[in-house]
Amino acid sequence: MSQIERLSCLIIGSGPAGYTAAIYAARADMKPVMYQGLQPGGQLTTTNEVENFPGYPDGISGPEMMLQLEAQAKRFQTDIRSGFITKVDFSGPIHKCWTEDNHEIHADTIIISTGASAKYLGLESEQKYLKLGGGVSACAVCDGFFYRNQEVVIVGAGDSACEEAHYLSKLCTKVTMLVRKESFRASKIMAERVQNTPNIEILYNTETLEVLGDGQLVTGVRVINNTTNQETEIACTGFFVAIGHQPNTEIFKPFIDLDETGYIKYAQPGTSKTNVPGVFVAGDAADKTYRQAITAAGTGCMAALDAERYLAAKGH
Ligand code: NDP
Predict the structure, then answer these.
(1) What residues does ligand 1 touch, defined as CB less than 6 Å away?
(2) Which of 18, 49, 50, 89 is most solvent-facing, going by the fewest CB within 10 Å?
């Protein structure tokens, strides 16, 4: 049987929240161990250029920024491991976690920074141009700027889609919004805002069949009206998907309070505390509102400071 490893601080997940928590925890001598998870670096590794993170006046690519954050966490001896946590038990005073190869860890403090994953339609053409960085995005605030004075298409009918469509309408000459039903899911006020924006065209009962491109860049989309079965092509250079996010919180569900959409609930607003003492959360796993690298980094800092104070109060 493998030996149980005892840690002062375990960080689960490796986006900006996790790395920032690691930098703070390591500098506070908490000897953090980080499990990077299935997508080391997190959502930013699917973003081309990050231009809105303060301190990078010329911008930086998402993957490059994550490598820099990793290097900074390592500089203070964070033990960064590839691999992921598959099971936890927070029922007792010791926080127990197991890795995918069944290694058992007992940690005084846990920082959950597992993030959220944007949902995509799952079309082959969508995934192709997403991977190429050729014009498919799930984040208007991150990538909208690259499409200024151009025409874009956005899929979705919830509050996020409305918010992102409105954001894009200020940058782009035209935004076409594809709504698969005959009405919005979004709140009335958000739906009305897009309906009243002159350069947003809403196509109801419309689904995406294929993202079109020249092999490198997106040039349009082929859509179908699901009531008439009529297919049309819409020219665009950017294709935005805003059909929701899935927080990566499933393994914590038996112990940690989640809201109805799976996001971790803060036990005390203004802190990073969850309902389990010693377990803290940072980043998108608890944030369905802001979802930015900089806000994730900020809450990562909060989680490490809260963990440090928790340990100090316990006399560690
Ligand atoms: P939602 O789950 O609310 O909405 C997802 C939307 O995507 C729905 O309109 C759904 O369509 C559509 N959709 C899902 N799958 C597909 C598909 N395969 N093809 C086409 N369309 C699809 O997600 P949001 O991210 O919009 O919002 C999540 C939560 O965050 C909500 O509670 C929301 O209120 C909140 N939020 C609040 C904001 C604010 O108040 N400022 C801003 C952003 C989010 P259908 O309706 O047909 O099912």
Answers:
(1) 121, 155-161, 163, 180-181, 185, 243-245, 261, 288
(2) 89
